[in-house]
## 1
Amino acid sequence: MALKFIQKTQEDCLLGVWEIDEEYEQLHEKVLLDPAEEQRLASFRNPARKLEYLSVRVLLQQMAGPSARIVYDRTNKPYLQDNQYNISISHSGKLTSVLLSRKKKVGIDMEQMTHRISRIARYFIHPDEKITEDESKKRYHLYIHWCAKEALYKICDKNALNFRKHMVIEPFEPVVEGTIRGTVDNGRIKEAFDLHYRRMKDYVMVWCCK
């Protein structure tokens, strides 16, 4: 079963995760695509990109029904054709995640912890942020910060945000699952957000509904 879970995370906020364990034809059979979606799918040359595209739509249709269709605005931000839900999407490795809300803005990011993220930490960690000195937790801690800022970037509609300068995650001790506080301030946007995070083996997922 490729569907890992669909769950209500808070009022008017639905989170789903799909694990891609099917071959292309198996996954294709599970989803209803319109001609435009079939054409877009055929345009991808990378087999992994095709699986990602299909997994997002399989998961979405299980969450919102077979008529749900994703379209994109000029900034490549996804939204649903019938505007039934606000949507945010993330994919990494074998996992795909979708976050939906009828009334709230949403942002989600998921990353597989396969990179030496400490090498680029100086580009996204704000001077006021605190990273644990515990070497066994540091990598995970950095990934939570990165995913949180990606989620904030999405929920703020990608409005000229610099991860290091304009976003601050309040100090926290990383555990398997928790809630953290993040602030965005770039002169035009000044707002605080509650973000939720979860570790799933070697994956980190952070999401926000507001």
## 2
Amino acid sequence: MSSPAPKENSAKENAYAVFRNADFFRYLIARFVASFGMQMLVVAVDWELYERTNSALALGGVGLALMVPMFVGTLPSGHVADTYNRKKIILVTTFILALASLALAGISKFTPNTPDNVRHFEILMYSLLVVIGATRTFLWPASAAYVASIVPREQLSRAVTFNSGAFQLSSVLGPAMAGLLIWLTKGAWIIYALNGLAGFICFALVLSIRHEHKVPPREPVTFRSLITGFHFVFKNKIILGTITLDMFAVLLGGAVSLLPIFAKDILESGPNGLGLLRAAMPIGAVICTVIIAHRAPIQKAGRTMLLCVAIFGVATILFGLVNQQCFGKFFSAPNAVWFWLAFGLLALSGAVDNVSVIIRQTLVQILTPDEKRGRVSAVNSLFIGTSNELGGFESGFTAQLFGPMMANSIATGTILSTVVGGFGTVAVVLAVAWIWPQVRRYGKLS
């Protein structure tokens, strides 16, 4: 008589069963390649703009250029994702993003780095970033809803976990590769060109997916149909609370857009250091993904999410403080010590933030009917995406405000902006737990 298989082997098999779905596997690889290229591009844009302008406001402008199209395009993008073939939407938007990256490469390569050309360079860069932001506004809801349609419902939580893990892994490798290439080539244009190539590879992989989105009978384009996603989100207090929590946590606590200043002026680690700092949060997130994938679904999802966002806020405060400028008078240490302390705190932030992301994305897909997934996903993208970009603008503005505008150095302004944002994140956790008790009471993530 044969003995039953060990529980550990059974759990491992269940954890990776979703990879037997060939369409999901192709899609996961496609999104990883595209995200890898985009992560390189973001680092290159931030570094090149700061190198050419030496302005924190220029970094904040990147977030603003990517955010404005999201406000304008969210309502139509959600409607399009629910009434047109989602696979075709992904293909078209991916192709446009690849072309925009090649245009960035041309601007970077052929615009001289001289004071006379700074304003001209900024206008061209921001214009293309607006195009990228508008295109991503239509890509994200179609992409999020498409994943839910190519895997069985019982595997959706695992699919979201691995999808998030693939994104985070690309966020580890992309910034590190960008930092290395900037150091080797002393220019950013090659990174933009590589992102264009990544877009075309993603296009080919998605094209090979056999699953086609079954388009329902099209609703007439009315204001009521356009705002269906907003109505559903505001009606469902759990989705509203979790989205609001993530939105304000990222808006206030995100210090990613200020990392070029930390790398150059505070931790003095250069472009290689910038690549490592940008990779720190994704490294923590990847480790977190591996752990979550091998565990049962989260039992107390609401409380877990609130706790993780609170830890994110505290880690952000400490990240802003662990440097020679803050503690040099009390504790003298080489720059490398401060750098790796900062790296560790960013990795911790990435780990706890990824728990929050997995819970939110899973809840949005599970609690939303398929015919509304595109519009609800568009609202989710608006809340979270704009908070990322607006958070970048807020961080750049407050760094400039607390720094040069108050006769302090840009480094001092950056530290103050980061610390204040961390305290704001903790305050948001307390507010959400009080306003939406349904969130803290939510149980098993299944």
## 3
Amino acid sequence: MELIGTPDNPVPPGALISAVGADDGALLRIARWSPEPASLGQGSLGTICVFTGRGEFIEKYFETIAELVERGFDVVAMDWRGQGLSARELPDRFKGHVDDFDMFERDLEALRKQVLQFLCPRPWYALGHSMGGAVLLSQANAGRSPFERIVLVSPMIEIAGRAMHASTRLVIEVADAIGLGASYAPGVSRRSSMLEPFDGNDLTSDARRYARNAAICEAAPQLAIAGPTIGWLNAALRIGRKLADPEFPRRTTVPTLIVAGADDHVVSIPAIARFANRLKAGRLIQLPGARHEILQETDAIRAQFWAAFDAFAPGGREEAAALRRATDHEAAQRIFNPPWWRRLFGRRRRAA
């Protein structure tokens, strides 16, 4: 459960590493950082939880984590089950596999119960990329999200390309149903996408950061996974159908910022735009020239992301303190003035 640094990607100082167990026994790697006490003044701005996309791992976000800590946030990062140094779902650890995305929500619940509620200052925020964004939305829609605000980077509302064709979906569903879920999906790579040549890649236009991520995989191949299995792809298609329901975003009330790249060919930008337009408390920002991995993009593109993030997340300690007080007040209202009490005694007051 260590963190692995490279010369171009050192571990941010002050990391605390631990393992937590989900309720089904899966062991998950967790890392935490806190700002230097002398730099805080009135205290932490809260906690940002960083959730990666498919095939990623904590080390890939060291740069982002350091920038969040510099802003005054505590930071928590987690490897999803089946990725990084968390428990893998299959004996072949390079297969990117999960039976259902509900299993990822077990990981979120383990993080809340064993890390957030005991160790992390409020308010709590989530920063999720791609697949991580889809899981966060599913949790929020079900009313189980512990986060005050959510920032989604290139969320996997719908996979782009041939995976969404009706014939492909049918083949994947049938193959999974007859017991082939643990097999690689047709046509996927048997090695990490981070090791593919830079030219023609769909992830980032920044050659330096692309090379940095490839160097991480070469130095620590145990962190990486290859292409997805039939089971993973079928699970992704299922959650995509949930997210496509027009009522899904309308029932999702956690304030949400979505940042997407205009040149993203991994997830569907039209699907993201439709989803964002239906959110009650959401906003979409599209960044020209950005591909799928905005946090691995050029400095100019990342600067646009951080400007949007800083405007959406608490921009100062006074705002964070006000939000924390509001959160505490709402919690007290739920305890001491529950809905059944308001319905009963509110009705009597109106009658009087």
